Amino acid sequence: METAGIKNHNFSIHLSENTRKTIFIGALVVCVFPVMSPPLALLLGLIIAQFIDNPYAQLTHKATHWLLQASVVGLGFGMNIVSALQAGREGILFTIASIITVLTVGLLAGRFLKIDKTTSFLISAGTAICGGSAIAALSPVVKAEEKQISVSLGVIFILNSIALFLFPVIGHHLHLSQTQFGLWCAIAIHDTSSVVGAASHYGAQALQVATTVKLARALWIIPLAFVSIIAFKTGSKTVKIPYFIGLFILAMLVNTYVPFIKPIVPYLTSIAKIGLTLTLFLIGSGLSFKKLKSVGIVPLFQGVMLWVLISGFSLFAILKLA
Known about the structure:
Elements: H1 17-30, H2 38-51, H3 57-76, H4 81-112, H5 117-128, H6 131-138, H7 146-173, H8 178-188, H9 192-202, H10 204-218, H11 221-232, H12 244-257, H13 265-285, H14 289-294, H15 297-320
Helix pairs in contact: 2-13, 3-12, 3-13, 4-5, 4-10, 4-15, 5-6, 5-7, 5-15, 6-7, 7-9, 7-15, 8-9, 8-10, 8-15, 9-10, 9-13
């Protein structure tokens, strides 16, 4: 039974196409203003997704990919390479231990829960390394079907949305330092967008640590892809290397060793932060209730279990080493 003007199954309000587009563009413009933080932008996107649907779904999917990468590179102009390398060294042991642990537990959990091997692997890889980027890079390697990719991405994006709001609250409650919170974000939050969003909300130093460790973590896509070729016996020779990480490092080098760029650095980083806010709005706008419902409870359970494992394990280790 439908309430007048509203579909109960996904809450969509019946509006003309032009009205939906106007509301969507208006919300997008609001995200450009400083009053809109990344978490609020994500929340606004989620509201848009539930009530009017995204009228530019195909376009925003592509825009999100490029906008996120450009924003991350732009944030590199506000970071010092020497400090970043120090942060990366501190996070490497956590990275190795957490990746091995999550992939192993994910494999076993997938078998126990009777989730198909490819979906289970993509959820595990997305949790272990860098969320949607890992899933996008590994999907062609393991010959994943569209449904398997959609379910995996759905699980990751649901948990990302929760983490963006939850992690800063926990961090403040436990009085985590900037470095501790940045390291925890980089290890325990799936996607780079949500890692950067949560860390930027916590502080500048947390942002530097989180971004550096997360992007160093993303490089593990490459060896995992080659292992996947053997494990899945696909014979694929296609491995997508996340080249924007190199541009991010180049931006840090320029900021550290090219003095005349200093006057424009605040403008570059401000534009990058706006880009990140827009990215999170676009991600939220694609997470309708209908799409969330299509994920299914069993794959979501696996994703939650792995996320709780990596979050708890890394937080415990960080607090013990404090």
